[in-house]
C-alpha cells in the first residue's frame, strides 16, 4: 500500500522541495570529528548530479541547504562547541559564500543555474514580503533556475530566528505550494525508538514507513539528533511534517548519507518515513497564521466561547475572554487557550494586550461605550482564526 501511495504522490507531483542538512554535506571522509569537518565538495557534486536527473525527469526543484556555519567554522578554525552569537554570525557570513560558491560550481557542471535566497523570520511574518518571496521563487523556477534557500544567520539572533532548516523547508514548501518535501537526514527515518540504544529488555527499534497523523505519541518518540553539526533533530523534522501535512503536502524523511536514496525515492521505492494523510489543506492565509507567525501572547477563554469557536465556527468576542498573557499589539498573532490552558486556536487580534485586558469579560455594548472610535466587535474575527 505504501509503495503504491508513494508512486501516486510522485505521479501527481511537479514541484519538490529538498532539504539538505549540514551532516549530509559535511566531509565524513576526512576522518575528523564532526565539529572539525567542513563542506564535502564530493557530496555537493553528487547531489548536483542527482538533482539534475530529477529536473530532467520533469520536476521543479527548490533546495533548502544548511551548512553555512559549518563551512565558516572550518574557515575560521572555530571548532569548540559553544560559540557565542557574534561568532556564529561571523561563521555564517564567511561560510555562506563558500556554500553557495560550491553549489554554483557543481550545478554549472550539470548545465544548471542557481540563485541564493536568504530569509529571516521577519520575511515570513510580513504577509507582503512573504508573497513577494513566493513570486520570486515562481519566477526563478519558470526560468529553470534552482533556488537555494537558507536562513540569513549572519544577521539574525535567537529571538528572531526561524529556528532550524527543517522548519524553514516546511515554510518554503508551503509558500511555494510544493507537491512534496524531502528531508535528507543522517538517519533512515523515524523509528519506534532510538536505534542507537541497545536494551535487551526492550523490543528492537523498527522504522516507521508511514505516518498518517502526527500524534503526541509520534512527537514523543521523535528522538533528537546527536550530531553536533545539526541544529534540529528528528523532533524538528516531525514538526515540519506536521506543518506541511496541514497544508496538503506530503513529507518524506530519508537518509541523505546514502546518496542513491534520492534516486530510489523517484523510482517509487519504499524507503524512509512518509508523512501523509491525504486530508484537505488549510487555506493559505490561515495556514500562514497557524504555522508561520510567532505568537506574541495568549488569551484564555471560557467554555462557552470555546464551544462557539470549535463547534460553531464563530468569532471570539470580549465576553468570552477571561485572561490575557504577554504584551502584544493590534494585528499580532496570539494563542487561544481553553480554561485548562490547552491551546485550541490561533488568530490575529484586533486589540492590543493592554486594551484587551481592560475589556475582557465585557458585553459588546459595554466595549463599544468604553473604547469608542477604536471599537471592534470581534476580539478575533473568524476569518483571522485557525483551530489547532
Low-confidence stretches: 225-231
CATH homology-level superfamily of the largest domain: Acetylglutamate kinase-like
Task: State the separation between the terminal residues, measured CA to CA.
Answer: 29 Å
* Count of β-strands: 13
Oligomer: single chain
How many H/I helices? 15
Question: How does CATH name the architecture of the largest domain?
Answer: 3-Layer(aba) Sandwich
Mind telling me the C-alpha Rg? 23 Å
Identify the CATH class of the largest domain.
Alpha Beta
Number of domains: 2
Order of helices and strands: HEHHEHHEHHEHEEHHEHEHEHEEEHHE
Shape: globular
Describe the biggest sheet?
8 strands, mixed
On the 0 to 100 scale, the average pLDDT is 88
The spatial strand order of the largest sheet comes to: 3-4-2-1-5-7-8-6
Secondary-structure-derived class: alpha/beta
Instruction: Give the helix proportion (percent range).
Output: 25-40%
CATH topology of the largest domain: Carbamate kinase
Beta fraction of the residues?
15-25%
Describe the structure.
The protein is 40% helix and 17% strand. With 388 residues, the protein is α/β, with parallel strands linked by helices. The protein has two domains: 2-287, Acetylglutamate kinase-like (Carbamate kinase), CATH 3.40.1160.10; 295-387, Archaeosine Trna-guanine Transglycosylase, Chain: A, domain 4, CATH 2.30.130.10. An eight-stranded mixed beta sheet has the order 3-4-2-1-5-7-8-6, with helices on both faces. A five-stranded mixed beta sheet has the order 10-9-11-12-13, with helices on both faces. A hairpin with a 5-residue loop joins strand 11 and strand 12. Helix 3 (41-56) packs across helix 5 (85-108). The longest helix is centred in the N-terminal third of the chain and has 24 residues, at 85-108. It is globular. The protein starts with a helix and ends with a strand. Residues 225-231 have low confidence and may be disordered.
